[in-house]
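Reopening this ticket.

The earlier resolution said the output was attached, but the attachment link was broken on my side. Pasting everything inline this time so it's all in one place.
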Amino acid sequence: MPASSEHSPRGRFIRLVLFDVDGTLIHTGGAGVRAFGRAMDLLFGVRNATEGVSFAGRTDYSLVREIFARHGIPATADNLASFFDAYVFLLDDLLHGSAGGVEDGVWDWLRGLRRAPHKIVVGLLTGNIRLGAEIKLRRFGLWEFFETGAFSDDHVDRNHIAAAARRRGEAVLGQPLADEEVLVVGDTPLDIACGKHIGARTLAVATGRHSPDELRTHQPDWVLTRLGEMSVRQLWTSAPAS
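Inline output:
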């Protein structure tokens, strides 16, 4: 039976929505991966450094540490800082020539969340470093929609990033939230897992590398082929998958 249009499926409105970036809000035409590879080549003389490395749902710091380890590069503070300085410069340059764009339904969702009859904090929960996320989202005009967020700068582990994102969202609202008042939106099993780690509801979109069937095996509350399949208003009236 559909939930009442007055309330969310578990009797509470969602008050905090946390979005992943790559594959969920935008696609960059591979600019991020190419920037990683070029930074490794320019700084350390390592060519094709990203071959065989899975980027989906990963944090930037975990990726750099993996690549460094593969090539015997010490993960010192200086090496990490040099890498990310080069990475963000290259990312900004590559994005201007990329075939990227905003995923279907994202604009409608962000505007719908702003128009909701109750206060909803819209934030980021991403494995990108903060400046990398900002560069990507400014490129597509989305950065200003987000009031808060947590990033790879906060922790190498995505679960810890999720916990930080929730704490910051609650701080913006000025109150603690019940688990059912938090929603994590992402395109990978790791997004679902970190959402579950903080007790949030999870909405998975198959706009990245994972099919709807793959995402369903991780038991998110909702699975969509693309975000545009469901409006913000339907979020209050659609019961989560069992």
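Reporter confirms the inline version is readable. The chain has nine helices and eight strands. The two ends are 12 Å apart (CA to CA).
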